[in-house]
Amino acid sequence: MLQHIWDDAMQKRCLREEKAMKATSFLSDWADNKRREDHDNSRLYRSHQSSTASARVFSSMNARDEVIVTLQNGRQGSCTCNNFQNNCRPCPHAWAFLDDLRRDGLPYFASFYTRAEWIATYRIPLPPVLLSTLTCDPTVLPPKIKVQLGRREVKRKEAGTRRPSQRQDPEAVGGTKRKRGSAAGAQASAQANAPPAIDAAPLKRGTGVWGGRWEYIVETVTSESVKAGSRRPRRTAM
Asked: What would the mean pLDDT of 120-147 be, rounded to a whole number?
């Protein structure tokens, strides 16, 4: 388990570092996708500027969707929707204001959204470790298993593999003594009332008058029929 976790972590870090090195934009791939998404959503808003640092941004579809966007020092900003200051990147309302001012919104992104910080995250690699060189700590023990009181909870998959209940099939789980006795009596009476077994007899075939084929079979039903040698013709298809 430790080897699997370590190998998976090293492989992911290596792949992310290679992806960060191949990126060419100023922002990371995730931040660049968010920038495009928020910029596309900003087309639904209009801004009325009171100055070059503040404006009222409202939606042309919903009259209640209106906010106030404030820009500070060309690097920071705030919005009454709280997404600008909480996410540290321009929200769709801020993008609508920035487009009217014809300003670039990249300086308003925090430094941890940049590609340089993305590469620096994986700058220090994880050195491979041999499990044979690790020492076992005797104080580390497996967790204690607590047995839950009461009836064990049955999963849905386990319920499908269980045997039928006594109500569904009493004979499958044994049933009661009365039911077992009645079942045994019914079986004995069925054997007593069963007709005698019919012995196998050889078949005799012949050609009939109408061009069909006839089969004659001797059936032993009773002692009289055996003495008389009764035969019953049966016609089969060609």
From this structure: 83
Q: Is the pLDDT of residue 203 over 80?
A: no
Residue type for 169, please? D
Q: Are 139 and 16 in contact (CB under 8 A)?
A: no
How far, in Å, CA of 28 to CA of 186, rounded? 81
Is 204:215 a contact under the CB 8 Å cutoff?
Answer: yes
Looking at residues 81-99, what average pLDDT do you find? Answer: 94
Q: What is the largest CA-CA distance in the chain?
A: 125
- Per-domain boundaries in the chain: 27-113, 203-236
Asked if 97 contacts 49 with a C-beta cutoff of 8 angstroms, the reply is yes
66-72 and 54-59 beta bridge pairing: antiparallel
Q: Which helix (H) or strand (E) holds 217?
A: strand 213-218
CA dihedral defined by 224, 225, 227, 230, rounded to 10 degrees? 150
Of 216, 219, 237, 236, the C-alpha closest to 228 is: 219
Q: Please, what is the Cα angle at 20 between 14 and 23, to 5 degrees?
A: 145
* Mean confidence (pLDDT) of the chain: 77
> Which of 40-44, 72-76, 95-99, 158-162 is the least confident region?
158-162
SS3 assignment, position 236: strand
Q: Which residues neighbour 191 within 8 Å (Cβ) at sequence distance 6 or greater? A: none
